[in-house]
Structures are given as structure tokens and as C-alpha cells.
Amino acid sequence: MSTLPNCPKCNSEYTYEDGLMLVCPECAHEWNSNSEEVNEDVLVVKDANGNVLQNGDSVTIIKDLKVKGASSALKKGTKVKNIKLVEGDHNIDCKIDGFGAMSLKSEFVKKI
Question: Which InterPro entries does this entry report, sorted A to Z (predicted)?
């Protein structure tokens, strides 16, 4: 009986080989069986200028943004402190003074 490594994503012991790839039936993660190092999925979010953003960064809005359900828009130049990066289309969660909790797209902000 051969011993295959546990899944690097969910640590499941029920991995199996599919050609050159290893597959986890529990989380559907696939990885190369020849690879020595484990590549974790790292969330990389870049601002409008291509700078890499990190949790806790401060950013500035570069374009007036209409806010659904609000009477006014977020104005260009609004500073946002202590952002949190998340996966999805709107990949920045933050709190903006006067608006509250918001989700923003990274393409409409620049790092301060």
C-alpha cells in the first residue's frame, strides 16, 4: 500500500492519484505530485496602479462611486483606513466615515 500525502488545503487523508496529479475528494483540491513545495492559495489584490494591497493598509478612492441605497456618492479622494482583503468581485471590506461598512473593488482605489 502506497502512502500519499495529506491534502495541503484541508489535510484530508483520502487523497488519490489521477495521472500526475493528486486529488482530494473532500475539497476537490488538485496539486502536482512531483512538486516538493506546497503552494498555498494566496490572495493577491492590487490597486489601480498595480501596487499590492495588504490587510490594514490605507487607500484613497480615485473615482466618484455611486452607492446603492445611499443619497450621495463616495467622492474622489475619500481616504479609507484599515482595509480588509476578501475574495470575490468586491475584494476590499472597510468602514467609511459617514457611510458605514462597505465593500469596494480594488480597481477604484490607490494605496496611500
Answer: YjdM, YjdM_C, YjdM_N
